[in-house]
Specification:
479 residues, alpha/beta, Rossmann fold, pyruvate-formate lyase- activating enzyme, 3 domains, 13 helices, 32% helix, globular, binds S-adenosyl-L-homocysteine, binds iron/sulfur cluster, binds FE3-S4 cluster
Length: 479
C-alpha cells in the first residue's frame, strides 16, 4: 500500500479543503490516484498524506486477492471513529474492489459516503459535492445521502490541461484499460471491463505534457498492455495502416510515436500477455532506443493442463515460440514473469513444470502468488483443492528457483559495460545512485545527485538475485 507522497505539499491557501488518497493495488491504481488528485487540485483542494487532516478521504482499492480487500476494509474501519468526531468528513471508495462490491460497500461500512467504479472516477469531485448537497437537504436519511456511480459503459475521461506535475522524473501513463481475456482465476475483467485504448495522438500529447513537466521515464500501463489498439476499428481501404491486427494501430506504433517525444528518455511497459506478443512489437522495441529491452510477459504456470484450466490461451510451446520470435528480433531482450502456485488441481508434476519453465526461459524478474479463489470468477466452479500448507511450500520452492535463476541471469551481465539511466540517489547511502540498464535491470553505482537524470556507461561488476552494481566505466560504451 502506498499513499501518493509526491503530492503531499499543501497547495494554495491554508483554508483549502484537503484530500487524502490512500492507494492499494497495482501501478494503474497509483496512476489513477494521481489523476484524481490532479482533478481535485484544479478545484482548489490541497492534498495530504494524513487521513486525520483530510476533509475527503478516498481509498483506491484492489480486488486481485482477498488479502488486498481485507487490508482495505481494515483501513476503512479505522475511519469510523474519525467520522464520528467529524461528521463533515467525506469517505469514498474507488478502484477494483469498489467496482466489485458497488453499493454493498455501504452495508459493510455504514460510514462510507460514496463509491466510484473503475470507469466513473473522473466524476469524483462532482460526487463529493453531491454527497454534501444531500447532507444539507433537510430530512434526508443517511441511506439516501450516499452516492454510487458504477456504470462500466462509459470511458474514463481526464483533461490534464492546467495541471502541474510534482511527481518527479518518473510517471505512469495508462494507454489502455481493461482486458478482453477471461483467465479463470482472475477478477480483473469483471472489475475493469473490456479493452479500451486511447488514441495515439492523445497519448503523445499527454507524454509531451509530462516531458515538459520534467518527466524522463514513462511507464506505459495496461492490464494487457500489448492488446493496445485491439478495440480500434480496422482501417478501411485507403486509410493509413498500423502494425496491429488487420492494420489497426498497435503498441509498436505507439512506441514509435513516443520515441519522438523530446525530453523523454526511457519508456517501459507493464504488463504484456503472450497472446499479443508480435513480431511488429519486437521490431518497434529493436528500433526505439528509449524503450527498455525488458518485457513482463507472465507465463503463470509451466504445465499445459494447468494453463488450459486457467484458460490462458496458450500452451508452453506457443509461449516458447512467441518468446523465441521476440528474442530473434531483440537478441538481448530480458523477460519477467508472474506465477500462480497451487491453482486448482495442480499436481507435484505440474508444479515441477513451473520450476522447469522458469529455469528454461531464464526469467530475470519473477512475482509469485498463491492461488486465491475470487468471487465471480470461473475457477470458483473448480475445487480449490490445494492445501494452504502446500501452496505455501510451493511458493517457497518457486521463490528459491527464481532467486537462483535471477542470480544466474544477472551473472551473465557481469563484466560488461552497459548504458544505465540514473534515476535517484540511494536513500540509504548518499554516495550511491540507483538506475536501470537499458534492459530494465536495477543497477547501483557510486555517484551523486549530478548523475540523476543522465545516462552513464557502467562497468557491471557485482550482482545479487535482485540486481547489479558497478562503477562508471573509463571509456563510455555508446552512452
Ligand atoms: N494482466 C496481467 C495480470 C494482472 S493481475 C496478466 O495477464 O498477466 C497480476 C497478477 O496477479 C497476475 O499476473 C497473477 O499472477 C496474479 N493473480 C491474479 N489473480 C489471482 C488469483 N486469483 N490468485 C492468485 N494470484 C492471482
Ligand atoms: Fe486477468 Fe488474464 Fe486479463 Fe491478465 S490476461 S488481466 S490475468 S484475465
Ligand atoms: Fe488490483 Fe485492479 Fe490492479 S484488481 S491489481 S487494482 S487492476
Amino acid at each position: 500500500m502506498t499513499t501518493t507522497r509526491h503530492t503531499s505539499e499543501r497547495s494554495g491557501d491554508a483554508e483549502a479543503p484537503r484530500l487524502c488518497v490512500v492507494t492499494f493495488g497495482c501501478q494503474m491504481n497509483q496512476y489513477d490516484s494521481s489523476l484524481v488528485e490532479g482533478k481535485f487540485r484544479k478545484q482548489g483542494y490541497a492534498t495530504t498524506d494524513r487521513v486525520e487532516d483530510a476533509d475527503v478521504v478516498l481509498f483506491n482499492t484492489c480486488s486481485v486477492r482477498d488479502h488486498a480487500e481485507e487490508r482495505t476494509w481494515s483501513w476503512v474501519g479505522e475511519l469510523k471513529k474519525l467520522k464520528q468526531d467529524n461528521p463533515e468528513l467525506v469517505i469514498g471508495l474507488m478502484g477494483c474492489m469498489a467496482q466489485r462490491v458497488e453499493e454493498e460497500a455501504f452495508k459493510r461500512a455504514a460510514h462510507v459516503d460514496l463509491v466510484a467504479g473503475t470507469r466513473q472516477f473522473h466524476h469524483l469531485p462532482r460526487m463529493v459535492e453531491e454527497v454534501r448537497e444531500r447532507r444539507d437537504e433537510p430530512g434526508r436519511r443517511l441511506e439516501d445521502q450516499r452516492v454510487a456511480y458504477t456504470d462500466m459503459a462509459s470511458e474514463v475521461a481526464f483533461d490534464r490541461a492546467g495541471e502541474e506535475w510534482s511527481g518527479g522524473m518518473h510517471a505512469y501513463l495508462a494507454v489502455m484499460r481493461g482486458c478482453d481475456l477471461s483467465c479463470t482465476y482472475c477478477v480483473v475483467p469483471h472489475t475493469r471491463g473490456g479493452v479500451q485504448s486511447r488514441p495515439i495522438a492523445d497519448l503523445v500529447a499527454e507524454a509531451r505534457w509530462y516531458a515538459e513537466q520534467g518527466v524522463k521515464v514513462l511507464t506505459l500501463l495496461g492490464q494487457t498492455v500489448n492488446s493496445y489498439g485491439e478495440d480500434f476499428p480496422a482501417p478501411s481501404a485507403g486509410e493509413a495502416r498500423g502494425t496491429g491486427r488487420q492494420g489497426r494501430p498497435g503498441l509498436g506504433d505507439l512506441l514509435r510515436a513516443l520515441q519522438e517525444v523530446e525530453g523523454l528518455e526511457r519508456i517501459r511497459l507493464i504488463t504484456l500477455h503472450p497472446s499479443y506478443a508480435t513480431r511488429a512489437l519486437a521490431e518497434a522495441i529493436r528500433d526505439c532506443d528509449k524503450v527498455d529491452r525488458f518485457l513482463p510477459l507472465p507465463a503463470q504456470a509451466g504445465s499445459d493442463p494447468v494453463l488450459k484450466r486457467m484458460k490462458r490461451g496458450y500452451t508452453l510451446d506457443l509461449y516458447r515460440r512467441r518468446a523465441d520470435t521476440l528474442r530473434e528480433v531483440v537478441p538481448d531482450l530480458e523477460l519477467g514473469s508472474d506465477w500462480i502456485v497451487g491453482f486448482c488441481g495442480e499436481t507435484d508434476e505440474d508444479f515441477a513444470g513451473s520450476q522447469g519453465f522458469l529455469e528454461e526461459q531464464g526469467f530475470v524478474v519473477n512475482y509469485i502468488f498463491k492461488y486465491d479463489e475470487r468471487p465471480g470468477t470461473k475457477a470458483v466452479g473448480y475445487p480449490d483443492d490445494i492445501e494452504v500448507a502446500v501452496k505455501k511450500e510451493r511458493h517457497r520452492m518457486l521463490m528459491e528457483t527464481a532467486e537462483r535463476v535471477q542470480r544466474a541471469r544477472f551473472e551473465g551481465w557481469r563484466g560488461r559495460t552497459e548504458r544505465v539511466f540514473v534515476e535517484s540517489v540511494s536513500t540509504r547511502d548518499a554516495s550511491i545512485v540507483l538506475g536501470r540498464s537499458v534492459h530494465g535491470l536495477p543497477v547501483s553505482l557510486p555517484g551523486d545527485a549530478s548523475f540523476v537524470g543522465t545516462y552513464r556507461a557502467v562497468m557491471l561488476d557485482e550482482c545479487t538475485a535482485y540486481g547489479l552494481s558497478g562503477r562508471v566505466a573509463e571509456a563510455p560504451a555508446g552512452a
